[in-house]
Amino acid sequence: MAFQDFLAPEKKTTSGIYLDNLTGVRALAVLWVLILHTWGIVGGQVALRLPLLDREIGLNRLIRAGEWGVDIFFVLSGFLLTTPLIRAGLARLDRANILHFYRRRALRILPAYYVALLALIYVLLFGLGKLPTPVEMIQNALLVNMWLGTPPLRGVFWSLPVEASFYVVLPFFLLIALRSRSFYTVFLLSIALTIVFRFVVVNTDAIQSKGVFLFSFFGGRMDQFAIGSLCAYLCLHRPASPRRGSLCVLAGLIGFVAFAAFIGKRGNLLESRDYFYYFFQTIVGLLAGLVIYGAASGSRLARALFGNGLMVFIGTISYSIYLWHTIILDIYALTDIARTMPTEEKLLAVTLYTWPPVLLISFFSYLFVERPFLEIRHNAQNPNASFIQKYPVYFLCLAAVTLGGLTALARVTHQIGH
C-alpha cells in the first residue's frame, strides 16, 4: 500500500480541510503524552548531553509538561471542526446538518474507543485494575460519565467526554458567533468565562467535594477549544504567509519550552493557590494556537517538522496511540522487566519494550477499526449494505450496551475465580 493510498480515507472524509502539517501536529501532541507516561514508569532525572559544550540540559520539566499534548489536541479539534463550518456558513447549521455533524463525530471517536474498552475488560480480569460495574461501563462508553461523577476507566480517557461535550456545543456557539456583529466576541467571552469557572471551582469547597475538578470537566477546558475556533477564523480571513507561518511555529515551540521551565519552578499551582493556575492552560492553548496557525500555512519549517512522512504516519494513527498506550504501559508495569537496570538506562529499555507494541496495535486499530468507519461516514446507503453500514449509530448504541453486558459477565467470572 502506497503512503498516499494509506492517507486517502483521511483526505476523503475530512470536511473541507486536510493538511499533512496539521496531522504532524497531532503526532507532536500524542508523542509528548506518550513520553510523559513512559517516563512515569521509570522516574528519575532525564538530561540531554551536549558533547561540544560538555554540559547537560535537564528535560524533566519539559517531559512533565507532556499533559499539554492533550491541550494541543483540544485546540486542534477546535480548529479542524470550526473551519469547514465557517466556510459553509449559516446555511449548513440547520437541524439536519447538525445531526449529521454529530453522526460523523460519533463514527470518528467511538469505534476505536469501544475496541479498547473491550480489550480493557479482558486485561482487568488479570489484575490490571478494578473491574467497573456494568452501569459505569455504559456511562463511559456513552461518554456521559463526566457529567455523572463517574471516573474514567483509564486515566487518559478523561479527555473523551470533554471532547464530546465540545462537539455538542460547537454548532450552537457558531450559530451565535456567525449571527453576531463580531465573531471574535463570542469565543473571547467563552475564554474569559472559562477562567472565571476555574476560579469558582478552586475556591468553592462545595463544588470540589462533588468531584468537579478542572482537569476532567468540560467547563475548565472550553478556552482551548475556543482558541482553536478563533485560530480557524483567523486562518480563513487572514492566512499566514510562509515566512510568518515559520515564525509562528518557532515562537510557539520556543514558548512551550520556556513556559514549561517557568511553570516547573512554581511547583504545584493548585496546592499553593498560585494565581497562574486559573489561566496557565489558556496560555498553553495560545501557544498551541500559534503552532497550528503557522502549520496551516505554507511554512517550510512546519513542513520539515510536521509534514514529513514519519510525523504524518504517527499523526494519522495518533487517536489509537492515545487509546492504547496506557493499557500497554500498565501491562508492562505489572511485569517490570527492566527493574534491575540502572535508572539512566531504564527509560530507554522501557521505551524499547513498550513503544513497538503500542505502535503496532495502534496501526492495526486504525487499519481495521478507524479506517472502515471513516469510509462509512461518507458512503451512500445502498440496498446491499450491511446493518453496520446502514445504521452505524444504532450499531454503536448496541455496542455500548453489549460492553455493559460483557462487564457484568466479567465480574461474575472474576468472583467465581476468587
Distance between the termini: 48 Å
Number of helices: 19
* Shape category: globular
Stretches where pLDDT falls below 50 for ≥5 residues? none
Going across the major beta sheet, what is the strand order?
A: 1-2
Q: What's the count of strands?
A: 2
For the sheet with most strands, the description reads: 2 strands, antiparallel
Class per helix and strand makeup? mainly alpha
Would you write up a description of this structure?
This protein has one domain (3-417). The protein has a two-stranded antiparallel sheet with strand order 1-2. It has 418 residues and is mostly helical. It has helices at residues 3-13, 20-42, 60-64, 68-88, 95-128, 134-141, 145-148, 159-179, 183-202, 205-208, 222-237, 242-265, 280-295, 300-306, 309-316, 318-335, 343-376, 387-390, 392-417, and strands at 47-50, 55-58. It is built from 19 helices and two strands. The model has no long low-confidence stretch (mean pLDDT 85). The N and C termini lie far apart (48 Å). Strand 1 (47-50) and strand 2 form a beta hairpin. The chain is globular and about 65 Å long.
